[in-house]
Design brief:
heterodimer, A: 358 residues, alpha+beta, Rossmann fold, OB fold (Dihydrolipoamide Acetyltransferase, E2P), 2 domains, six-stranded mixed β-sheet, 32% strand, B: 270 residues, mainly alpha, MetI-like fold, 13 helices, 81% helix, 0% strand, globular
Chain lengths: 358, 270
């Protein structure tokens, strides 16, 4: 990893390496299966976000890759090398933690230099690299500050600089933004993406915040009960979920009673084409996104419950005559047109959707 | 308004009176002891500083009171060895329990606090067969008393270190260091210990103070440490014995003062 460093763009790190987590299983004392045959392959330089509810095993997966936890079975291969039983300190993984992890007795600069010192780099090289890294995260001026003199966002930036300073094979981000307030979170999230693109390190990002995952990752893996439910590009994950769990977890989903026929699901007098994996003929529940429903004139089939502005767009909540609660995304102009109690007609826009057994 | 101010004044005065009385209560024996040590020998009375001169000049002291000098050296050595064994034993154990065996923390705490409930004499009776082996395998040197002293200081050292470990996120810090390539030794030496500095100092100071003041175990095992030497000397030359007692007290006081100073400086920094 050191030889490629000098020639890489920005002199930051070498091109990323491939990561292969294969059939990882991890059972905790008490029989909880944190990982249940997880397989995840990351392309070199790829940014993958693992998304899922708490307890789905996403952090365990990351910790197995970091070597902080041993899988009961399965293998961890990084850059063609089997690391399954290699201790953490021999793995060359840069890691940023959820909790603030800067060494309290060292300045930002000393923190960044720590990993380089362990690699026996000489003082001048260390100082240069630490300066570069702090510059990369925009904290050159805070180099001599201690952790307690910095804000949470700054601490996480330094932690990122420290993780990248060692030119890691893989960058591991374990919910690094969840302790920060909303504005800093968005800002740092975008910055993490910028830096990752700049250095090209293969990155695994664990989060429970879907917006975060969708915004930064090349591909997002949704995890459920220790397995990868779906791994896809953000847009695909949103528009073509493979399961009810994914559809429910990512974005807002309306559950609407429908009838599945040969040509698709019949709902509100329209036909919705189905995604692969949908339920077969007969009664089903159709999972429809708020923006895939249109309010139009004609014979009413729903009643408006409420309507509200959400900034860039608005939403109208309705109850259909079948008794389903349906949220419709509308333009701001439309919000005022629909008062509670109004009768409206809902129509599917025709986007592909997933139908599941009722 | 004026009434309240008067009341507050009264309360302040009362507090100072209480503080003054307590101080006097503690200071009086020390002042009396000091007065005793500077009384000139002989019938004509008056004061001189001969006793203190002897005490401060270790060469003369070793010549005129060889047992006392040996006791002082033995106790200082015991203090150092006890602190070293205690730290080497406790810091890695407590850190490891915190990191890997959190379920064991209760047990470790119980074991460490147990010596508080065991009277010294019981400890001696229990340790006698152990020391038969110690003397057989190592030697009868006073310094091996440190094994017993480590047990004695365990509760105090444990409390001090536990407070320090609670104040930092050992798990995250060590995992961060590990991911950066640190061995477990480096984690302990470069990351955990520096952040436990205050706690380690407190534990060490408390141990030193305890060891320097220990009499029962040393006496029952027939070892000669400072306190035993002082006690024996007190029978023949009470002046020098009392002076040494005062000096030891002053030393312990300085140590405790240094400890609170180090602690408060650290707090101000963060």
């Amino acid at each position: 990893m050191t030889t490629t460093a000098a020639s890489s763009p920005g002199g930051v790190t070498g091109p990323g390496v491939a990561v292969e987590l294969t059939e990882l299983t991890r059972v905790y004392a008490g029989g909880v299966r944190a990982l249940d045959g997880l397989t995840l392959h990351m392309a070199p330089g790829e940014f993958i976000a693992l998304l899922g509810p708490s307890g789905c095993g996403k952090t365990t997966a990351l910790r197995c890759l970091a070597g902080l936890e041993d899988p009961d079975s399965g293998s961890v291969v990084v850059g063609g090398r089997d690391l399954t039983h290699v201790p953490t300190n021999k793995r060359d993984m840069g890691m940023v933690f959820q909790a603030y992890s800067l060494f309290p007795h060292m300045t930002a600069r000393q923190n960044v230099e720590f990993g380089l010192e362990l690699r026996k780099q000489d003082k001048a090289t260390r100082a240069k690299r630490a300066a570069d890294m702090l510059d990369l995260v925009g904290l050159s001026k805070q180099a001599d500050r201690f952790a307690h003199q910095m804000s949470g966002g700054q601490q996480q930036r330094v932690a990122l600089a420290r993780a990248l300073a060692i030119e890691p094979q893989v960058l591991l981000l374990d919910e690094p933004l969840s302790a920060l307030d909303a504005k800093v979170r968005t800002q740092l999230r975008d910055e993490i993406r910028r830096i990752q693109l700049e250095v090209g390190t293969t990155t695994l990002f664990v989060t429970h915040d879907q917006e975060e995952a969708l915004a930064v990752a090349d591909r997002v893996g949704v995890m459920n009960a220790g397995r990868l439910e779906q791994l896809a590009a953000p847009a695909e994950l949103y528009s073509a979920p493979v399961s009810e769990f994914v559809a429910d977890f990512v974005g807002v989903t309306n559950r609407v009673r429908a009838e599945v026929g040969d040509d698709g699901a019949h709902v509100w007098g329209g036909v919705v084409p189905l995604l692969p994996g949908s339920a077969g003929r007969g009664a089903a529940v159709l999972l429809v996104r708020p923006e895939a429903v249109v309010i139009e004139g004609g014979e009413a089939n729903a009643t408006v419950v409420s309507s509200s502005f959400l900034g860039g767009h608005g939403k109208v909540v309705t109850t259909t005559d079948d008794g389903d609660r349906v949220v419709v995304q509308v333009s701001n102009a439309e919000v005022t047109a629909h008062a509670p109690g109004d009768r409206v007609r809902l129509r599917p826009r025709g986007d592909r959707a997933l139908a599941v057994a009722p | 308004m004026a009434q309240r101010a008067a009341l507050r004044r009264k309360q302040t005065t009362f507090r100072w009176v209480v503080v003054g009385l307590v101080m006097a209560f503690f200071a009086l024996p020390m002042v009396a002891a000091f007065e005793f040590t500077i009384r000139a020998r002989g019938a004509e009375g008056g004061y001189d500083a001969k006793t203190w001169q002897t005490l401060l000049d270790f060469g003369t002291l070793a010549e005129s009171y060889p047992d006392l000098a040996k006791g002082i050296v033995a106790s200082l050595l015991l203090a150092v060895v006890t602190v070293v064994i205690m730290l080497v034993l406790l810091v890695p154990t407590m850190t490891w329990v915190r990191l890997r065996l959190p379920g064991m923390s209760r047990l470790v705490e119980f074991i460490c606090l147990l010596p508080l409930t065991v009277p010294a004499i019981v400890l001696v009776v229990g340790l006698t067969p152990v020391y038969a082996w110690v003397i057989y395998l190592l030697s009868g040197a006073t310094v091996w008393l440190s094994f017993a002293y480590v047990i004695l200081v365990l509760p105090y050292a444990y409390r001090a270190l536990d407070a320090g470990l609670r104040a930092i996120d050992v798990k995250t810090l060590s995992e961060a260091a590990r991911s950066l390539g640190a061995s477990w030794f480096t984690v302990m030496w470069r990351v955990v210990l520096p952040n436990l500095r205050t706690a380690v100092l407190s534990a060490s100071f408390l141990s030193v103070a305890l060891v320097l003041g220990e009499f029962t175990i040393a006496n029952l095992f027939a070892y000669k440490n400072l306190q035993v030497a002082m006690y024996l000397l007190g029978k023949s030359d009470s002046k020098i014995s009392v002076a040494v007692g005062l000096a030891a007290l002053a030393f312990a006081f300085i140590i405790l003062f240094a400890m609170s100073f180090v602690g408060s400086r650290r707090e101000r920094k963060s």
